[in-house]
Write a structure and sequence with these properties.
The complex is a heterodimer of chains A (about 110) and B (about 120).
Chain A lengths: L8 E4 L5 E6 L9 E5 L6 E4 L13 E6 L2 E6 L8 E9 L4 E4 L3 E5 L1
Chain B lengths: L2 E5 L2 E3 L5 E8 L8 E6 L5 E7 L6 E3 L7 E6 L4 E6 L8 E9 L4 E5 L3 E5 L2
Parallel strand pairs in B: 2-11
Antiparallel strand pairs in B: 1-3, 3-8, 4-5, 4-9, 5-6, 7-8, 9-10, 9-11
Classes of the chains: A mainly beta (about 110), B mainly beta (about 120).
Amino acid sequence: SYVLTQPPSVSVAPGQTARITCGGNNIGSKSVHWYQQKPGQAPVLVVYDDSDRPSGIPERFSGSNSGNTATLTISRVEAGDEADYYCQVWDSSSDRGVFGGGTKLTVL
Amino acid sequence: EVQLVESGGGLVKPGGSLRLSCAASGFTFSSYSMNWVRQAPGKGLEWVSSISSSSSYIYYADSVKGRFTISRDNAKNSLYLQMNSLRAEDTAVYYCARERGAARLFDYWGQGTLVTVSS
């Protein structure tokens, strides 16, 4: 089965740039989606199809995907960005949804 | 406004059954595939099951295959998850999520319903 690997945690100071990676075998050939989840809340889609943003999501959120790594980049990080972030793909070879293990973003 | 509201969670003994429901509104339910995603306490997201708009295509995670059954009633704008032979490891918040696009992303989520499997 397809596996997505994320770092458990990332820390960044306010105003700096946070980069959260999502590793997978040839993930560059798949469409990657990113979700933000704050404590006690449902996940929210923040980036889809590698680099597109849903309406209402700030331009500070961006994504890229190449080779074996997809990256969610959050520029000018704010305290309100502190949350868990999950990457997701659909594994068409097995017809399964797949999530990464999640990354806790801490704003110092 | 798209709304997804789950219900049916609760406390159940190991080996027991439970049926979750998800009431959808604010969009043409019959045009979208729907999914169930769960999250064990303090853990990450786990995809559980998917059903296509007309129920023609149904998929399950290996961890629930043979025990859970996903279904939908487009006339009632509702999604269901019948859970049988429940185990302690099925304890989680269960979310219904609308699926969108060929890349199969989840663009709207419900608030979740908690299922606790314990004796």
